Amino acid sequence: MTTDVGDPAPPPLFPAPPAGRRDPRPGLSGLSIEALGTWFAERGEPSYRARQVADHLWRGTTSTAEMLTLPAGLRSAVDQAFRADTLIGTTVRPSDAGLTEKALHTLDDGRAIESVLMRYPAREHRRERATVCISSQAGCAVGCPFCATGELGFWRDLSTAEIVDQARFWERRLGGGGRRVSNIVFMGMGEPLLNTDAVIEASAALSDPARFGLGARHLTISTSGVVPGIDRLTALAPQYTLAVSLHAARPILRDVLVPLNRRYPVAAVVASATRYAEVTGRRVSYEYVMIDGINDTPADAVALVELLRGRLAHVNLIPMNPVAHTPWRPSTRDRLEVFAGVVRGGGLPVTVRRNRGVEIGAACGQLAAEMGDQPTAPAVARRRELLVVRSAEALLGVATAEA
Ligand code: SAH
Ligand code: SF4
Questions:
Q1: Which of 4, 120, 216, 302 could form a disulfide with 239 if both were Cys (CB 3.0 to 4.6 A apart)?
Q2: In 3D, which of 351, 332, 330, 329 has the Cα closest to residue 340?
Q3: Which residue's CA lies nearest to atom 11 of ligand 1?
């Protein structure tokens, strides 16, 4: 789906590189076992063939040639109709002494997307965890100005299999010794709820015990606030964690930081997320990127408390990762602690998140951006100027209120 989110996002900084031709064969990991069974049935094959393919696939096979329980003729028919892996090539960059690894995947048409593995060693009673952050789109139309993906603009939606295959990639890489992907978060490139069909299907595949097998509660869908998408999820009532990228409670500031706010205003987003919480019983996680002197004032903390008080909510404060071409810096530790204190004092559970993989640009979009032509200095300067002007209006509102 292409996306028109209105004008307010700054224009993309990077011209989209030309795309190659798509491979028309769908990826096998995007299919339910029933759909695969129907495909075999139409060819007069018994339904257990679908189970055989699924066994290979979900044990990590990336080539139909390796599906040796199938006769050669059938293997070749499967290969002509489907792809066992939709990721054509991947390069991996380690960081944080190997605890974080970032992958740049190339797709059939040459588009590049990113995923990240973050390992958290065992601590006290907690077992080792491995969280994988995956992309739902190549690029993103929402255009949040602090986000490296937002600077790329929108390239295209990912298919269900392209989403699932990122998780399969890391599962293979972790493989052995009983180590598995323990959590998956849709916090890579793209806005998941602007590619809702594929994201819902991919989430079903990832949380299906007969397929990827991740517990639904270990999957997080992060959204910048697409109200119809949240409502669609609510109707399905899954046990996924919903994360809402809030970044500002005051509408005038959120218009600048999350341009989608002009289409889906913050009050409607929080109302929709609250319905999700009520129907599913799952606490909603509100993400708040802390930007020095922009959204981290005590007035912003008070506005956040007023917005979320009494709701099934958890606030995650994240120091801005300085990867995009902004005039802004991450909040200082002191400002962060004061802000967290106000939120906590207002009765909301709050966590301060440490940035992972900063030196490899773990905020997704950066590696993909490095692949193409770089923006010119005047284009960067124009963008910074625009952001200064737009945020000044929102900040003036605070200064006047506090005077
Ligand atoms: N589009 C979705 C999911 C992908 S972005 C969304 O916006 O929720 C995942 C998270 O990374 C969001 O909370 C986003 O605001 C955050 N993010 C983007 N750029 C960042 C940066 N430079 N520093 C810290 N977090 C960032
Ligand atoms: Fe898109 Fe999320 Fe980045 Fe905003 S933060 S531009 S919604 S990927």
A1: 216
A2: 351
A3: 187
Nearest protein Cα to ligand 1, atom 22: 321
| pLDDT band per the 50, 70, 90 thresholds, residue 6 | very low
Helix, strand, coil percentages in the chain from 3-state DSSP, rounded to 5: 40, 20, 40
Q: What is the pLDDT of residue 355?
A: 65
Q: Which ligand 1 atom sits closest to the C-alpha of 222?
A: 8
Q: What is the DSSP secondary structure assignment for residue 238, as one 8-state letter? A: -
Distance CA 56, CA 177 (A): 19
For residues 145 and 387, the answer to whether their CB atoms sit within 8 Å is yes
Distance in angstroms (rounded) separating the CA atoms of residues 92 and 94: 7
**Contact status, residue 363 vs residue 147, Cβ threshold 8 Å:** yes
Residues noted as catalytic: 114, 364
Give the ligand at the shortest distance from the Cα of 246: 1
Tell me the CA–centroid distance for residue 135 and ligand 2, in Å: 11
| Ligand number nearest to the C-alpha of 258 | 2
Work out which ligand 2 atom sits closest to the CA atom of 140: 1
> For residue 403, is pLDDT > 60?
no
User: Which amino acids bring their CB within 6 angstroms of ligand 2?
Assistant: 140, 142-144, 147, 149-150, 190-191, 224, 245
The pair of structure tokens assigned to 378 is 């005047």
**Mean pLDDT, the chain, as a whole number?**
90
